[in-house]
Every structure is written in C-alpha cells, then in structure tokens.
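>> Question from a student workshop board

For tomorrow's exercise we were told to take the sequence and the ligand below, predict the bound structure, and bring the output to class. My setup keeps failing. Could a helper post the expected result so I can at least see what it should look like? The ligand is oxa(dethia)-CoA.
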Amino acid sequence: MSFTIIGTGKAVPEYVMPNDELSTMVETNDEWIRTRTGIEKRHICKSETITQLCVEAANNALENAGVKPEELDLIICSTMRGENITPSQGCMIQKEIGAACAAFDVNAACSGFIYALDIAAGFFARKAVKKVLIVSMDNLSNIIDWTDRSTCVLFGDGGAAAVLGEGDDLLSIHITAVGNDDAIRIPHGTNSSPFYEHEEERAVLHMAGNDVYKFATAAMANGIKKAVADAGLQQSDIDCVIPHQANIRIINTAAKNLDIPREKFFCNVQNYGNTSSGSVPIALDEANRTGVLKKGDLIAMCAFGGGLTTGSCVIRWNKD
Ligand code: UT7
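>> Workshop helper replied:
Here is what the output should look like for this input. Compare the format with yours to find the bug.
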C-alpha cells in the first residue's frame, strides 16, 4: 500500500510584486525577466509569517479533503527555514491547526514536496498512519540578496499542502542527492559562539545560475523518464506533468527531451516565480482546483534544487 492524495490547498502572501517594481531596485527590466525566465510577478511576504501561510495552506487542504485536524496521524513540513530552529515548522503547524500527531520537518530545498511524499509512503507501507498532512512552504524573500539582480528576480514566497489517505496511487517515486554547495548555498549567517573560529557569512542565497540550469534541464527530463519507466508506463500514458516552476525555459527544454506534449506540462511560474518547496504543490493545487486533473489521470511530478537534490514520481489522481 502507498497512499492517495485526497485534498490540496495553497497559501501565498497578499502582496504581488510585478517585474517592473524590481527594475526600481536593481538594474533589470520586465523584458529580460520574462524572456529569460517566464516570470511576470511573484508574491512577497509583508505582514504574513511562514507559520500563518503554512496554517492557511493546511486548513485549505484539510477542507478540500474533508478531514479534521484531529484525524491526522502525521504532519511533515518541507521547508528550508521555518519560523524557528526549534520547534520545527511541522510542530508549529500541529499546534496552530489543533492536531495531536507527530510532526517534523524535511529540508530538501525545491525537491522537498517529493521527498516528503516518499517519506510518507514509508509510513503508509508499514501501516503506521491513515491520514498524513504534508505542507511545503518557503519564504525566500527573507533570504535572498535584494541587491543581486541575478537571483532576486527569480524567487517568490508561498507554498501548499496535501492530505494523503490510504490507497495505491503512488506508482513510482525516486529521490536523489549530489552533495554540492557551489551551485546553490544559503549560509546560516548567525553564530552566537565567542569560541568559533570561522568567519560569519551573510545569510543570503548564492547561486551559480548557469550550472543550476544545466543540472535542472537534465534532472527534469531524466527524473520524469525514470519515474514513468519505474511505474511500468510509457511517456505517452502521462496525462499531466507538474514540474518544479523555476524557469519556463527549463520546462520547455525538458519537454523537448521527452515524448510528452508540451501542453501537458502545467505551468504557473509566470504568477509566482520560484517558490522553492512550495512550487510543485502550488501547481498541483491549482491543477486540482481548476479542473485540469480528472479522476484516473496519471500525473508525473518532478523537482530539483539546492543540495543538489531531485525528486520525481508518478501518481494516479483518484479524486472526483
Ligand atoms: O530551484 C532551483 C533554483 N534555481 C534555478 O533553477 C535557476 C536555474 N538558472 C536559470 O534559470 C538561469 O541560469 C538564470 C535565469 C538564473 C539566468 O539566465 P541566463 O540566460 O543563464 O543568463 P546569464 O546568467 O547567462 O546572464 C546573461 C546576461 C548577463 O549579462 P552579460 O554578462 O551577458 O552582459 C547577466 O549579467 O544577463 C545579465 N543578467 C541580467 N540582466 C538583466 C543577469 N540577471 C539579470 C537581470 N536583469 N535580472
């Protein structure tokens, strides 16, 4: 037994920042951002905390699933940086929604949602759980360098949640990691020890964009190929691809290397930018709520990110 997805829900901050606003902060312009990334706008936290967004996404998913918080057996939150070092973001969600189950965090950067699905599958396989909540949320506006045009135009805040119930709709899943702190790195930045001998670094995102681009295009095509083959399917069987939304060019390049028509790739990077861990489940929630997904559809999901990590899977959509 694996699981079936019975509900989804998203939460993004209210404030929408269009590309033009960024051009008042760094030397960039709407045309460069659109043509090089596909991004038109992103949501940025002003008043919202990451906990508030996690709770909103969780409640939306629970409502969509028709599940009460007290029915949950496990909460997994994927995030790179929760509200506190401890308690975990998962525990903060548990407290705020009024659940009583175990809760913890997983940090796999943009691949976090798929890592969390794989972890959850293990709990279902040994029949330790009946209902699991996954919340994938990042608040990158707090940790990007707003003076660096090569990164600050790419990211946005937000995320989404999924409620899993018992079922057999995870057809394959594959996660990878290649330890690498040159391509993407966000240092902690703070150290209270008067004894520590290393220099403190600013806690902002550093990225070698071109290296990540090459990694990403290969990771997306290879990840989808493997997940589809492991599920015993042909690429032509896939009804919808939910790819990590980092750059429309990465999605277009991956699509060219697959036998899946480009129109089957669900894309919303234009509205959110790269929301890291939130990106795949936000897209899944939008596909769910806009009627793109039909009961019985075969969905391939794929993500890549800091670590460097990747995750890919095929699920059967079994929701009316
Ligand atoms: O979730 C995983 C995280 N990250 C990613 O997936 C990112 C993967 N990488 C990418 O998406 C792309 O590499 C970027 C969007 C980051 C960059 O696109 P690119 O087409 O590879 O541009 P580039 O870095 O080769 O830069 C081309 C030019 C440079 O100018 P010169 O040296 O040719 O004069 C940059 O300085 O564009 C310049 N540039 C900009 N110009 C206007 C870089 N950023 C900007 C900007 N506005 N924001």
